[in-house]
């Protein structure tokens, strides 16, 4: 049973916030942080699968299909996961994604 799309957007937002929090933990165990971020990226992609694509239409700069494909890759090809891609995604892409999801949530009066 899939969750309500509104709840999935909030799941995405929560995962983005968690990743941002992890990145601020200077001196943390790098392996543990990598694993934690990877799991949160999987959560984001899984949640995105359950949101109708029409909801994302107002944020065309976000590569929604790539987010879902990344989830599939991280979940099924975890031994091939590039640490660099995880770090760059977390550092460079998550802030933009979080802002977009916040705008969508605000637009749909989701709380």
UniProtKB/TrEMBL annotation:
Molecular-function GO term, any one: hydrolase activity
Keywords in alphabetical order: Hydrolase, Nuclease, Nucleotide-binding, Phosphoprotein, Toxin-antitoxin system
Pfam families documented for this protein: HepT-like
Cellular component per GO, a single term: toxin-antitoxin complex
Domain of life per record: Bacteria
InterPro entries found in the cross-reference section: HepT-like (IPR008201), HepT_RNase_toxin (IPR051813)
Stored PANTHER family: RNASE MJ1380-RELATED, UPF0331 PROTEIN MJ0127
Protein name: Uncharacterized conserved protein, contains HEPN domain
Naturally occurring in which organism (per UniProt): Brevibacterium linens ATCC 9172
Source lineage: Bacteria, Bacillati, Actinomycetota, Actinomycetes, Micrococcales
